[in-house]
Write a structure and sequence with these properties.
single chain; alpha+beta; Jelly Rolls; Arc Repressor Mutant, subunit A; 2 domains; 4-stranded antiparallel β-sheet; 12 strands; 46% helix
């Protein structure tokens, strides 16, 4: 997908006409990233807004104790850094590559100018921030007090819905997640996560093959329903 097409498919620019999109496209720089590379760093000034073009990026929150938590996994078309760019505060999380990929980036100065020129983009940004805030609040509510099995099942379902490819017998995740990645997403220890994933594998809920994880979505949904009961 070329730069113009990606921007056209990105929610915050969906209201722009083709001529306006061409103007916006000229302000974006295309830049590659590698696995584990820091794209944006928590606490840094908001110099850039980024859009994922290819690959996947994890949003990591650092705690004073040194423990990291993966807040979200971003894929093609997702916007990164808009909270800080919009309000002028430091980046609230670190964006780190999960493999090789490409981003489009625009300077904060140019982006603020766009908001003044195209008010519809500002409204879309506000809507996007609202949806992300609502989603974050829902996740916090769902994870609070949930048993580890439920938290892991919930995270695997979210990954399946966002990054999965339907196959016979389940959904393949398009990228490899380590047990540590999953532990960081649910706020659990690596030992507990390994134990739960091992049980899921024995029960056929999770299958590993050649670095790919295949998930039985219906069984994961059943686990959540059983926990709710």
């Amino acid at each position: 997908m070329d730069k113009l097409q990606l921007l056209k498919n990105t929610t915050i620019f969906s209201s722009l006409t083709p001529p306006d999109l061409s103007v916006v496209s000229s302000l974006f720089i295309e830049e590659g990233f590698e696995k584990e590379e820091f794209i944006l760093t928590e606490g840094d000034p908001p110099n850039w807004l980024c859009i994922v073009k290819e690959g996947n990026i994890k949003m990591v929150k650092h705690s004073p104790s040194g423990r990291d938590m993966i807040m979200a996994v971003m894929s093609a078309g997702d916007v990164i850094g808009e909270v800080a760019v919009f309000d002028g505060g430091p980046y609230p999380a670190t964006a780190q590559g999960m493999g090789n990929g490409t981003i489009l980036k625009i300077s904060r100065r140019d982006f603020i100018s766009l908001l003044k020129k195209y008010p519809s983009v500002a409204l879309e940004i506000i809507g996007d921030l609202g949806r992300k805030l609502r989603g974050a609040m829902n996740v916090a509510r769902e994870l609070r007090g949930e048993r580890v099995e439920g938290r892991i099942a919930m995270v695997l379902l979210k990954l399946a819905r966002k990054l999965g490819t339907p196959v016979d017998g389940g959904v393949d995740l398009s990228i490899h997640f380590t047990r540590q990645d999953i532990a960081d997403m649910v706020g659990s220890t690596i030992e507990t996560t390994i134990r739960v994933i091992s049980r899921f594998k024995k029960e056929g809920i999770v299958r590993d093959s050649k670095g790919k994880m295949t998930l039985d979505v219906k069984r994961l949904e059943s686990i959540l329903k059983e926990i709710e009961i």
